[in-house]
Amino acid sequence: MNAKIQHNALSLATVILLWPTFAYSLEFPYLFKDPLRTMPDVVEKGVILPGDSTRIPLMVQKNFAQPLTLDEAVDLALSNNQKVKGAWADIKVQSGAVGEAYATYLPVVNGSANWTKDNIHYSDSRYSSTDASRYTFQASATWRIFDFGGRTANRRSAENLLASALASYDATIQDALSGVIQAYFDAVTASASLKAKTEDEAIAKSTLSSAQEREAKGVISQSDTLRATTALAKASLDKNRAWGDYQKSLALLRYYLGLPGDTELVLPPGLNEQQGGAVERKELSLWLVEAQKNHPMIASLKKQLEAAQQQVTVAKSAGLPTINLSGNYYQNTRPGEAVTPSGAQETTLVVAVTLPLFDGFASTYKLRGAQAKVEKQAAALADIEQQVAREVIKAYSDTTTALQNLEASATLLESAQRALAVSQRKYDKGAADITEVLSTQAALADAWNERVRCLSEWHSSRLQLLSSTGRMGRFAVCDYSKIKP
């Protein structure tokens, strides 16, 4: 008998020791990935941005020896942006909360199996000693069948927060797009400005060389040569500053792309001269209506407001009665009691009505807090609506102004180039002095700067307008990339 008891005890101990390893290796009881189907489809299929037909690429390979296009910059930024990854994880977290809310509609079942050796020895000889060795088992099932809408409100709140997380993810993408687009155009603008300043320096060197030749022939005085030397020094200074601005813009672009600081970037040789792009010509009021309707941050705050309103219902139901149905099965013992002298089975069925009577006014303050959160979310929604409207108005104004400036800057640059060519020919023939040449040279430098700035403002502002209304997708930046300089 003792050998059998020892064998049973050893077998039970072995199971107890090995069970955690087995359960952990199989993630038991978490074998089902999403049994209640609460995970959104976008988690498995990926996200498609507004206006696009393909999903955002997860991994991007780029040969940095080739010029970096805007669509490649966007793909790199979206795949490496940590805020985007965090927003993606928030979706998974909130889908788990939805699953927890759905789980409250299902019964909770627990079981316990034991092997018990129960030996009782009495000091009084009038009582005989007992020696029992039994397997015991207990099982319980509890199911809430009524709670005045608390579970339903909590489920709806969780679903609204999941919808908010999805919209917040879209808003994070729009913000990332806006940041990388601005950084890209700043870098390309700085590159174009550096190119213009380099050409200004070359023109200044040519002017100085011509002045030195004319001074050697006795045609002009030394003062003209000195003024040309001064102009060259200023052009060189401007070029050096442009080089510094270019390097800083590259560093900021690397940050938005999520690249190491020592990554060498090659940018296109200049800004696109064409006006093509994915921006419709329509009134500001229509842009504002579209932003209020489609902007993901506004959608996110609306869902958060709805979730806060549902939490008011949850807080109210916490102070109302609940009805639970429970069943229990006991074999050979109840939890915490000695085993029965002989084999026994016990089954119970309980319908329990729980009526909260007094909790120190905790439910009152919980309700007041939930109502205050509704007010807070409503204020946050109104604030983000105003913020989005301001961004749309600014982007619309910038786009309109930039479009008007494009033609003017082209005319300015063309006339400045012709004026410099004329003044240089006149100077070479002795029909003009150095003052006229330097003046037209400075005018050309200013015209180049204006042209570069206007082109950058146009391409950037039209994409920022799409982003401010929540409509930015890869289609827009691909349209830009298709425009040939």
What would you say about this model in short?
The chain is α+β, with helices and mostly antiparallel strands.
How does this model look, in words?
This protein has 485 residues and is of the alpha+beta class. It has one domain: Outer membrane efflux proteins (OEP), CATH 1.20.1600. The protein is 64% helix and 10% strand. It has helices at 2-25, 41-45, 70-80, 82-103, 150-216, 222-257, 284-294, 296-317, 362-428, 434-468, 474-482, and strands at 108-120, 130-146, 322-331, 345-354. It has a four-stranded antiparallel sheet. Helix 4 runs antiparallel to helix 5 (150-216) and helix 5 runs antiparallel to helix 6 (222-257). It is elongated and about 140 Å long. The chain starts with a helix and ends with a helix. The model has no long low-confidence stretch (mean pLDDT 82).
Tags for this model:
4-stranded antiparallel sheet, Outer membrane efflux proteins (OEP), alpha+beta, 11 helices, 485 residues
Distance between the termini: 95 Å
Radius of gyration: 38 Å
Please report which band the strand proportion falls in: under 5%, 5-15%, 15-25%, 25-35%, 35-45% or over 45%: 5-15%
Order of helices and strands: HHHHEEHHHHEEHHH
What's the CATH H-level homologous superfamily? Outer membrane efflux proteins (OEP)
